[in-house]
């Protein structure tokens, strides 16, 4: 694996190469690393298991000291691959409040922000694909039935 980021590179068993891939990835690829699982209701509605997190999504914390807390996504840091949530803060010794940053794998998406057309478009395209009837592969298949 070369020192620059390669889009042709697929995978490796070696952890050092996996780590290197994630470290050297450009920001538009790192956005996909910020995916979190959808709740069961959203999973059935959209037919997807996970989606990248965005500011404004409501999430449920599944692990750690803030388990079962529901909050909105306040900020998404693609450089560090961390998510800050509204209202979840720790106080430092001097009394100042600091945001707690979460790994996206610890979060479960409860509701989505659908302001962006691209997120809505994905949903509509999937529904169109579901509605299409299956076509016969060959003309000879029609005569057999």
User: What class would the helix/strand composition place it in?
Assistant: alpha+beta
CATH architecture of the largest domain: Roll
Rg measurement, Å: 21 Å
Q: Work out the helicity level.
A: 25-40%
* Uncertain segments: none
| End-to-end CA span | 53 Å
- Give me the side-by-side strand order of the main sheet: 2-1-7-3-4-5-6
How many H/I helices?
5
Strand tally, please?
7
Detailed description of the structure:
With 145 residues, this protein is an alpha+beta fold. The protein has 2 domains: 1-33, no CATH class; 36-127, SH3 type barrels, CATH 2.30.30.30. The chain is built from 5 helices and 7 strands, in the order ααβαββββββαα. It has helices at 15-24, 27-33, 40-46, 117-131, 139-144; strands spanning 35-38, 50-52, 58-61, 70-77, 82-91, 97-102, 107-111. The longest helix is centred in the last third of the chain and has 15 residues, at 117-131. The radius of gyration is 21 Å and the shape is flat. The chain starts with 14 loop residues before the first helix and ends with a helix. The mean pLDDT is 86.
Summary?
The chain is α+β, with helices and mostly antiparallel strands. It has helices at residues 15-24, 27-33, 40-46, 117-131, 139-144, and strands spanning 35-38, 50-52, 58-61, 70-77, 82-91, 97-102, 107-111.
């Amino acid at each position: 694996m070369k020192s620059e980021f390669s889009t042709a590179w697929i995978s490796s068993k070696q952890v050092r190469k996996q780590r290197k891939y994630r470290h050297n990835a450009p920001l538009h690829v790192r956005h996909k690393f910020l995916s979190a699982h959808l709740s069961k209701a959203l999973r059935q509605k959209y037919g997807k298991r996970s989606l990248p997190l965005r500011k404004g999504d409501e999430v449920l914390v599944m692990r750690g000291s803030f388990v079962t807390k529901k909050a909105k996504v306040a900020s998404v840091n693609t450089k560090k691959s961390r998510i800050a949530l509204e209202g979840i803060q720790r106080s430092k010794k001097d009394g100042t409040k600091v945001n707690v940053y979460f790994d996206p794998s610890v979060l479960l998406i409860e509701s989505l922000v659908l302001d962006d057309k691209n997120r809505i478009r994905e949903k509509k395209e999937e529904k169109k694909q579901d509605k299409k009837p299956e076509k016969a592969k060959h003309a000879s298949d029609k005569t057999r039935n």
